Automatic annotation (TrEMBL):
Annotated signal peptide: none
Protein name as it appears in the record: hydroxymethylbilane synthase
Taxonomy of the source species: Eukaryota, Metazoa, Chordata, Craniata, Vertebrata
Organism: Sphaeramia orbicularis
UniProt pathway annotation: Porphyrin-containing compound metabolism; protoporphyrin-IX biosynthesis; coproporphyrinogen-III from 5-aminolevulinate: step 2/4
Family to which the UniProt record says this protein belongs: Belongs to the HMBS family.
Keywords linked to the UniProt accession: Porphyrin biosynthesis, Transferase
Every Porphobilinogen deaminase C-terminal domain range: 239-314
Cofactor(s) essential for the protein: dipyrromethane
CDD domains linked to this entry: PBP2_HuPBGD_like
Length: 348
């Protein structure tokens, strides 16, 4: 997505004074829903361009740059300098430990978290399974490459960088790649759904922690902003992502190692499947655990508004689920797999 930022005016409820809320983002407007804007008296004020380190460094694989906040640091700097009041990120770009003074004030309803295959025009109608031997697949993700190598060993994987438009251009205008793998949510957000040839289910490729979800980051001290954005929380997404992030944090993982997850909420149960892989996918550990989240939210109407507040107990259980699954994999040797993967990635 093209980097950018915007500002909007918020007329506080209950007749409080006008306040200008400055929003920085590198994705898209989470407040584009007109009913939300009407409810809060919000109108677009102006656009402010922003770009991040991850947007600028295009000649190096993400896993080799060594910076944990590639797509968030500049936005957080603006937040710290009070140039903006909240920032919007792809949740998967946010480290599991935030800088002091910041917090995630809202996690929006998750889009499709799975990865998608986009084929070179000459391969239309094929799938990863039916592509010829030694076809080259482009991806910037160690997680995707490790899993898909394991599942489709006849394919070759090479790094591809750039924003979505750049990667699609590299695919279409050159003959370097038979296909590329991207996040389905990113393709949808940019209006490129028609290019999706195949969506990879969890049996082929589990997704990244937080993939498909947008997060609103705020200054922890700004209680009024926190209260405002809390209405954007999607309870199921919050609990799934807390479990995923707790799993990743306990493993001490990041973009430099292949870690994948798959979560579901069903019948008041939260299911978390997590896995770690060697770089070539030949060595892996994978397991599933679950926990009860019976009390997910309260639904109390106030002047026609239903504010869905996520149960603190359910959040605690989701976090514990992630930690417990990580500890289970660590007890089976996950640390050794990730250490070797990190060393090989650094050396290559």
């Amino acid at each position: 997505a093209a980097p950018g930022g915007f500002q909007f005016k918020l007329f506080e409820l209950l007749g409080s004074p006008k306040r200008l809320i400055n929003v920085g983002l590198a994705k898209y407007d989470p407040f584009k829903d007109l009913s939300y804007k009407k409810q809060h008296g919000i109108s677009i004020f102006s656009l402010v361009g922003m770009s991040t380190t991850g947007d600028k460094i295009l000649d190096t694989a993400l896993s080799k740059i060594g910076e944990k906040s590639l797509f968030t640091k500049e936005l957080e700097n603006a937040l710290e300098r009070n140039e903006v009041d909240l920032v919007v990120h792809s949740l998967k770009d946010l480290p599991t430990t935030l800088p002091p003074g910041f917090t995630i004030g809202a996690v929006l309803k998750r889009e499709n978290p799975h990865d998608a295959v986009v084929l070179h025009p000459k391969n239309v109608g094929k799938t990863l399974d039916t592509l010829p031997e030694n076809s080259v697949i482009g991806t910037s993700s160690l997680r995707r490459a490790a899993q898909v190598k394991k599942r489709f060993p006849h394919l070759i994987f090479k790094d591809i960088r750039g924003n979505l438009n750049t990667r699609l251009k590299k695919l279409d205008e050159k003959d370097d790649f038979a296909a590329i793998i991207l996040a389905a949510a990113g393709l949808k957000r940019m209006g490129w759904e028609n290019r999706i040839s195949q969506v990879l289910g969890p049996e082929d490729c589990m997704y990244a922690v937080g993939q498909g979800a947008l997060a609103v980051e705020v200054r922890a001290r700004d209680t009024d902003i926190l209260e405002m954005v809390s209405l954007l929380h999607d309870p199921d997404t919050v609990l799934r992502c807390i479990a995923e992030r707790a799993f990743l944090k306990q493993l001490e993982g990041g973009c430099s190692v292949p870690v994948a997850v798959y979560t579901q909420v069903k019948d008041s149960q939260l299911y978390l499947t997590g896995a770690v892989y060697s770089l070539d996918g030949s060595d892996s550990l994978k397991d599933t655990m679950q926990t009860s989240i019976a009390e997910v939210d309260d639904r109390v109407q106030r002047v026609g508004v239903t504010a869905r507040k996520v149960s603190g107990e359910a959040q605690d259980r989701a976090e514990r689920l992630g930690i417990d699954l990580a500890n289970l994999l660590l007890s089976k040797g996950a640390k050794d797999i990730l250490t070797v993967a990190r060393q090989l990635n650094d050396a290559s």
